[in-house]
Design a protein that fits this description.
Layout: H1 5-12, H2 16-30, H3 34-42, H4 50-56, H5 72-85, H6 95-113, H7 118-122, H8 133-154
Amino acid sequence: MALTADQIQMICNLDADELAAYAVDLRASRGYNCAQGVVCAFAPYLGVSEELLFQATEAFGSGMGGTTETCGAITGAFVVLGLVNSEGPATPTTKGVTYALDRAFLDCWREQNETTVCRELKGLGGGQVIRTCPGCIEDAVHFTLQVLQELLRVK
């Protein structure tokens, strides 16, 4: 079930820098991938266990299963946005709004980082590093909170 406006407001009231630092620390100290770091940092506020979120996003690390394609921090953020907004299978009518949230997130992301591709962000294959994994995690947390603020304005 979608979170209420009050629940979303509680998330938006979190200290973005502290939440981002926690997400980065999950990756650095506990071996989480970027997707897991992002989504598990939000776990206490989503009504879903950290263990389930960890398991559900395990395949999204290193650019979708180690393929260095779509950045895992982005996929983790999309999981958060879906959990916040989706009404679930009984009322599958929230996809349009969730997709709009995803696009708003990507607008922020691309303005900051130019690309969503893990290998390009990390400068693999001889390219210049655009953003490190910790930086991508920080951006994902900040942009998720920013998009949730926008969602509150329309709820």
